[in-house]
Structures are given as C-alpha cells and as structure tokens.
C-alpha cells in the first residue's frame, strides 16, 4: 500500500507538509526521524466518541488530530515528551481548517508523570473519558535501536514498560473511561498483563497488511474498572492480493471514517 499522506511538500526548515484523510488533515513533520503513518490513523479510527480525550505519545499530533477532525465536539490534550514534536503538534492544531487550537491543548511531558501530584496540572487525573495511545513498540531486546535519536525515542521501549503507559491511562481516565491503543502482536502478553486489574471488557482487533499475511498490528480497546472477559473482534485487512487498498482501508485512511460503531 502507498503511504497514508496524500501529498508531501518539503518546506525550507527540514519539515514536510503532508496531507492525510483525503486532505482534511495537514501535518508538518520532520523529514527525518519518526514519521506519522497508518498506525496513527488506524488508532484514531478505532476510538469511540468522547467529549474529553487525551493522546499519549502524540508526536506531531497525527492520531489525536485525526480523532478531533472526526469528532468535532471533542476537547483534546496531546501529550508528547519531545519538545520539538510538541511544538509541531501545537502548530498543526492551529493550522487545520477549521482551526482546532481552541479545543486542543498540547503538554510537553513524560507519560510516567501524568496524573500524579508532582506531575503537570494537565491532563488532570480522572478527567478524561478517552485515552488514545501509540506506545513505542520496538523492544530493544528484539530490535536494533534506530541511530536517529528522535526515531529511537518514538519507537523503542521494552514491552514490559508499556505498563507505565497503562498506569498513566488508568490515572487519567474517569471510572468506566475508554482506552484505545495500537501495538505489535508480539507485545500481547505484556499488554494483557498490564491491563489486568486496571481495565476490562478488552477488545482485540488484528490488523493484517494483506490476505494471508500474519497480523502486524493489534487495535485494543478497554474500559477502566471493568472485569468483563476479553473478546476478539473481526480482523482488518489493509490491502487485497494485488496490493490495492481494501474498502475499509480507503474508508479509514482516506475518508477519515471510524472502525466499527461510533
């Protein structure tokens, strides 16, 4: 499949200006280092309606802003540890049409400090009804870290450390609040261990790049404080055997539609 950006226009300061969702979302992002792609758009599409949402590890804002475009009444906080990316996320919120800055707040912070008395005031503990997260997913024990510092920061933590992100999500969510995340299938054991006792009603939706190919991503949803058993949802296939985008992929990556019920 082709990249989700509809076009890419290099700028004079080492950034590209990329169109997503059929041009309804435009993102400034570094030409080098971590680049927004399918994962962010799939995550945004998998998230249900929410009035107050938080995007953890937001980068330049791709997942959170894609969600905000789809849900025009949502208030959104983007949390990013890299100050340069956090600054770009704020710029990206302000340059959408319509401007999203009035309902999007950007916080430059470590996920581990969120919702704690010593952490930043926003996002506040127990105030969100949705947390989105795309944690770094390359376990250094299995993957060679990127030599590019920004890409390494965005992609590499140990699978077991995803619990840090899940604890933060639990602190930020109101009782019964929803979690939506995307990760690699290899992390399923660590993910289920981290969710146990904190979240229930877990749903797992495999994402396959093409028919017959193993799943390369999992879209996971959960509810804070529930104890309902996990369930597998129908899988998503992004392309057909000839490499053409599937109908669902077009619906999500180009049209900005949701996966499943709103």
Report on this structure:
By secondary structure, the protein is of the alpha/beta class. The protein is built from 7 helices and 12 strands. The strands form 2 sheets. Strands 4, 5, 6, 7, 8, 9, 10, 11 and 12 form a 9-stranded mixed beta sheet that branches. Strands 1-2-3 form a 3-stranded antiparallel beta sheet. Strand 5 (75-80), helix 3 (83-94) and strand 6 form a beta-alpha-beta unit. The longest helix is centred in the middle third of the chain and has 12 residues, at 83-94. It is globular.
Supply database-style keywords.
single chain; 262 residues; alpha/beta; nine-stranded mixed β-sheet; three-stranded antiparallel β-sheet; 7 helices; 12 strands
Question: How does the SSE layout of this entry go?
Answer:
Layout: E1 7-10, E2 15-20, E3 25-30, H1 38-46, E4 52-56, H2 62-70, E5 75-80, H3 83-94, E6 104-108, E7 128-133, H4 149-155, H5 162-172, E8 173-183, H6 188-195, E9 199-208, E10 217-224, E11 231-232, E12 236-237, H7 247-254
Parallel strand pairs: 4-5, 4-7, 5-6, 7-8, 9-11, 9-12
Antiparallel strand pairs: 1-2, 2-3, 8-10, 9-10
């Amino acid at each position: 499949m082709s990249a989700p950006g509809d076009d890419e226009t290099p700028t004079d300061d080492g950034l590209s200006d990329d169109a997503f969702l059929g041009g309804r979302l435009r993102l400034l992002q570094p030409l080098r280092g971590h680049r927004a792609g399918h994962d962010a758009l799939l995550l945004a599409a998998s998230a249900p309606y929410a009035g107050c949402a938080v995007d953890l590890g937001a980068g330049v804002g791709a997942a959170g802003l894609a969600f905000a475009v789809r849900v025009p009444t949502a208030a959104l906080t983007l949390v990013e540890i890299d100050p340069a990316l956090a600054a770009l996320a704020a710029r990206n919120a302000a340059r959408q049409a319509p401007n999203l800055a009035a309902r999007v707040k950007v916080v430059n912070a470590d996920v581990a400090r969120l919702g704690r008395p010593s952490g930043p005031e926003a996002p506040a503990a127990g105030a969100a009804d949705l947390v989105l997260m795309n944690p770094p997913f390359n376990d250094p024990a299995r993957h060679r870290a990127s030599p590019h510092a920004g890409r390494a920061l965005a992609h590499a933590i140990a699978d077991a450390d995803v619990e840090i992100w899940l604890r933060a999500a639990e602190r930020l969510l109101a009782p019964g609040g929803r979690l939506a995340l995307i990760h690699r299938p290899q992390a399923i054991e660590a993910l289920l261990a981290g969710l146990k006792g904190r979240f229930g009603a877990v749903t797992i939706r495999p994402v396959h790049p093409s028919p017959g190919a193993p799943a390369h991503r999992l879209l996971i949803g959960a509810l804070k404080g529930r104890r309902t058993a996990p369930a597998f949802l129908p899988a998503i296939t992004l392309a057909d055997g000839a490499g053409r985008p599937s109908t669902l992929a077009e619906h999500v990556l180009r049209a900005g539609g949701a996966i499943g019920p709103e």
